[in-house]
Amino acid sequence: MIDFDKIWCEKYRPTKLDDLILDDKSLNVVKQFKDEIPNLLFVGSPGTGKTTLARIIVNDILKCNYLYINASDESGIDTIRHNITNFAQTKSFDGGIKVVILDEADGLTGQAQGALRNTMETFAKYCRFILTANYKHKIIPALQSRCQFLDFKPVINQAVKRCYNILQHEKVNIDDDQKKKFVQLIKRYFPDLRKTINELQKSVIDSILCIDSSGSDSELLSGCFEKVINKKSLELRRYLIENEDRFQGDYDTLLANFLDYLYEQKLDDLKEKQCFLQEKLDVLGVWLGFLKEKQDALKEELDFLKEKRFS
Ligand SMILES: Nc1ncnc2c1ncn2[C@@H]1O[C@H](COP(=O)(O)OP(=O)(O)O)[C@@H](O)[C@H]1O
Ligand SMILES: [Mg+2]
């Protein structure tokens, strides 16, 4: 059996609003909830605290009767509606509201979401819904308009603090070099805190933090370096695209690491320093071109999706 107490991600899942990392705007909205909530839609990328906040609301803020459904686990909309109807048709024990948490609701088809809308309407008097989704556009407008929307954007400084506290709580030793790598690791996976905490736990050996970011990373950086100094920008692009999974497509962090890498190269004379600065500028130029291309590609994809949605 899985021991959830040993998995940091579960062990340190916030149970109170104070422990959850949330931007000020969302925090102010949630702080107003006491005995009542509107229907809610939480949108954000994986590992940003959507499920956790839904649980905090039912267990700690409202302390109410609730039903948890993961829309991607269930066998279909009929089962979901049947379970919701069974749960929602009676008044709660204390007369307070009941809540249905429909996690990962964007896994449902548009048709299923339409059926859900009717169910929401039927039980609107005593029952509220909290929907979570990775993508807002995958939730039909009829459901969006019935929910108050919260956009999940954790704050990086708070993520660093929280992860550091977890390490301290676990009595993990961190030397200065690891402190730097620790911050880089958080930036690399941000905003996915689930992934970050899992990676941190994997990096602890005998209570010592041993993040290994050298290995393949420095090989990747020297690969870039070789192409940059020889001004092979097309090759550099191809190399980056082919190796995207090695840096999770995170160009910002890769660029930051690359500039660090350049900085750490031995520079003996003035000429070398001059070349170095020129390289930095070249790199930035190539990078900007590359990002622009990516942006254009994404824009095209977005237009295509929009067209598909309205056709
Ligand atoms: N905003 C956050 N504040 C603190 N911890 C978080 C936050 N988001 C995620 N976590 C950590 O990651 C784990 C997974 O979060 P979860 O709420 O399941 O993410 P989501 O539902 O958005 O995918 C939690 O158990 C917690 O340890
Ligand atoms: Mg979730």
Describe this structure in words.
Helix content is 55%, strand content 10%. By secondary structure, it is an alpha/beta fold. It has three domains: 22-151, P-loop containing nucleotide triphosphate hydrolases (Rossmann fold, 3-Layer(aba) Sandwich), CATH 3.40.50; 156-209, Helicase, Ruva Protein, domain 3, CATH 1.10.8; 216-310, no CATH class. A five-stranded parallel β-sheet has the order 2-3-4-1-5, sandwiched between helices. Strands 6-7 form a two-stranded antiparallel sheet. β2, α4 and β3 (98-103) form a beta-alpha-beta unit. α8 (176-189) packs antiparallel against α9. The protein binds adenosine-5'-diphosphate and magnesium ion. Adenosine-5'-diphosphate binds next to α1, α3 and α9.
Q: How many structural domains in the coordinates? A: 3
CATH class of the largest domain equals Alpha Beta
Largest sheet: 5 strands, parallel
Share in helix = 40-55%
List each distinct ligand once: adenosine-5'-diphosphate, magnesium ion
Low-pLDDT regions: none
CATH architecture of the largest domain, by name, is 3-Layer(aba) Sandwich
H/E element sequence: HHEHEHEHEHEHHHEEHHHH
CATH topology of the largest domain: Rossmann fold
Mean pLDDT: 87
Instruction: Name the strands of the widest sheet in spatial order.
Output: 2-3-4-1-5
CATH superfamily of the largest domain: P-loop containing nucleotide triphosphate hydrolases
